[in-house]
Design brief:
Layout (H helix, E strand, L loop, with lengths): L7 E3 L1 H9 L7 H4 L2 E4 L3 E7 L25 E7 L1 E10 H6 L6 H26 L7 E3 L14 H16 L5 E5 H7 L3 H6 L11 H8 L3 E5 L2 E3 L9 E3 L4 E5 L13 E6 L10 E7 L4 E14 L5 E5 L3
Parallel strand pairs: 2-12, 6-15, 7-8
Antiparallel strand pairs: 1-13, 3-4, 5-14, 7-11, 9-10, 11-15, 12-14, 13-14
C-alpha cells in the first residue's frame, strides 16, 4: 500500500542524523566533493586551455590593439539519479527496544551506511573501471611499491605531479591509498628515509605520508564490501583494493573550478538539507513505521587530467 501524501512526514531530525552520519572508512566525499545544484539535470561549462597560449600584443604607433582570440567553450551534462532505501520498524520491535538505543536513529544510520557504500562502490568503478578516462597504470614486477629494493613510490608520485600539472594546470594536492597499499607504503624504506628525523619514523600515519609525498592530505580508503552473493560465507575485501590515486580538488568546488571529480547533488528544493531527506510514515498493514532515505546525485569526472591512478600497486 502506498501511503497518501498526508501520511508522509519529512523528518528534519532524522535528516540531520543522515547528513551528520559519515563512516570514516569511506572516501567518496574527499575524492568527489559535493557540488549542490538546483536542477536534477543540466549542463556545465568546460573551458579549453587557449588562455595559456601566447598572443602577439605588440602595437605599432597609431594602430589598434590586437584582439584576443575567442575561447573555445564546450559543455558536459550531469543527471542526478534518485537513490532511496527504506526499512521497517514493526510495533513489536519498537515496544521491546531499549529507550537509550533510539531505534529510529539506528535505522536511519543503517540505511545511510548502505547508501554511502553503494556510492563508494560506484565511484571506484567510475575511476578504475573499464572505460574510465582517468590516466592510470597497472604496476608489475619490480615496479610494485611492495618491492622495497627496486621501487620508489616518492619518485613515481613526483613524476605524475609534473604530468598532472601539465594536463590540468594544477598541482595535485591529495593522495588516496587503499588500506592494503597504505600498510606497505608506510614501511617503504624510501618513505621512511624521507621522514627519518621525525619522532614517528617507525609508525607513520597519514599526516606523515602527506609530508613525505608533498601533498596536503593522504586519505586512506578502508571501506569493505562483500564479494560473494547473499547466503554464501562472508568474504570481505577493500572497495579500493590495491590502488592509489593522486589528484587535485579545489578548496571550494564550483562550476568554474578545476577538479578531477565532482559530486553533483540535487538539493531537491531544500538546500539546507543538501538534498538529503529522511521520510517517516506509517504502513498499517505491516503494523510498522517506515524510515526512508532519499538522495539525488551524480558523480562525474570533470577534468580527467587532474588525476592519475595506479592499480596492482602491491
Amino acid at each position: 500500500m502506498i501511503p497518501s501524501i498526508s501520511m508522509v512526514h519529512v523528518d528534519e531530525l532524522l535528516t540531520n542524523v543522515s547528513i551528520a552520519y559519515e563512516n570514516a572508512n569511506f572516501v567518496a566525499n574527499v575524492l568527489s566533493p559535493d557540488l549542490p545544484v538546483n536542477k536534477q539535470s543540466n549542463k556545465y561549462p568546460v573551458f579549453d586551455l587557449s588562455h595559456f597560449r601566447t598572443v602577439d600584443d605588440r602595437r605599432a604607433p597609431g594602430a589598434e590593439a590586437n584582439q584576443m582570440p575567442a575561447w573555445n567553450l564546450s559543455k558536459n551534462s550531469y543527471f542526478c539519479d534518485g537513490h532511496a532505501l527504506c526499512d521497517f520498524i514493526d510495533d513489536t520491535t519498537r515496544a521491546n527496544a531499549d529507550e537509550a538505543t533510539d531505534i529510529d536513529v539506528q535505522t536511519t544510520e543503517g540505511i545511510s551506511e548502505t547508501m554511502m557504500l553503494n556510492r563508494e562502490v560506484a565511484l571506484q568503478q567510475l575511476v578504475f573501471g573499464g572505460g574510465s578516462t582517468v590516466p592510470q597504470a597497472a604496476l608489475s614486477g619490480t615496479s610494485k611499491w611492495s618491492d622495497f629494493v627496486n621501487s620508489n613510490p616518492i619518485l613515481a608520485i613526483d613524476e605524475q605531479k609534473v604530468a598532472i600539472q601539465k594536463a590540468s594546470t594544477k598541482s595535485p594536492n591529495k593522495l588516496m591509498l587503499s588500506y592494503d597499499v597504505f600498510s606497505q607504503v608506510r614501511n617503504h624504506p624510501a618513505v621512511i628515509d624521507r621522514v627519518k628525523y621525525t619522532q614517528r619514523a617507525d609508525q607513520l600515519n597519514e599526516q606523515d605520508l602527506a609530508a613525505a609525498f608533498g601533498v596536503d592530505q593522504v586519505v586512506v580508503a578502508k571501506a569493505l564490501v562483500q564479494t560473494v552473493n547473499e547466503g554464501q560465507a562472508d568474504a570481505l575485501d577493500y572497495i579500493w583494493k590495491n590502488s592509489a590515486l593522486l589528484f587535485y580538488v579545489p578548496p571550494a568546488i564550483g562550476l568554474r573550478t578545476i577538479s578531477l571529480l565532482a559530486g553533483f547533488m540535487w538539493t531537491y528544493g531544500v538546500p539546507k538539507n543538501q538534498g538529503r531527506l529522511v521520510k517517516r510514515y506509517r504502513e498499517e498493514r505491516r503494523t510498522s513505521d517506515v524510515i526512508e532515505n532519499q538522495w539525488y546525485y551524480d558523480d562525474e569526472i570533470i577534468v580527467p587530467g587532474a588525476g592519475f591512478g595506479w592499480t596492482a600497486v602491491v
